[in-house]
Amino acid sequence: MAIVAPSLLAADFAHLARDCRICLDAGAKFLHFDVMDGHFVPNISFGAPVLTSIAKAVPAFYDVHLMLTDPLDYVPMFLKAGASMITFHLEANSPVDKTIEAIHAGGAQAGIVIKPATPAEDVFPWLDKVEMVLVMSVEPGFGGQKFQSGALDKLSALRAQAVKIGRPELLLEVDGGIDRTTAPLCVNAGASVLVAGSAVFGAADPAAEVDFLRSL
What we know:
8-stranded parallel beta sheet; TIM Barrel; alpha/beta
């Protein structure tokens, strides 16, 4: 079964705790928390105080995606706020090894994110150092974009390489345009974690969408 990580960027901010509970009750294992700085990506979203509040109200596994120019500078505050997993972009300015070390030192799991234009092979050197790789199937920064099929080849390449180096348990997450049509394609290509925003929170029955995705 796939791990479902509903993207809180698409939730109702006026009822964020309620929406989190709906997803968790439906079987979601992760809650995906997008952090944007208005510089690395052309949008601004949540900060650490929001994570602090929601993590206290709704204890869960918070999958925090840092879309920040200098993610290493912000790792401590998101660890303190309640992040369970912190993923950061390979394309960002912070040294990859130091950022991974800082996340692990704080007791959280670490992951690397790659944009659509970044080859899967660029992240191969760190596959034995992280718990997850996140493949963006849209340009990061905004929800509701159309799925880019090039992500499927990346997922396949990453899964094959993970098996090759003896890391078959490596989590491969995919984010962007995930719905009932694209999710099965991603799972078949090697994805184990599905980030879904609009597909879940834009549905008449969000719980039913979570249940469908986790059944894959």
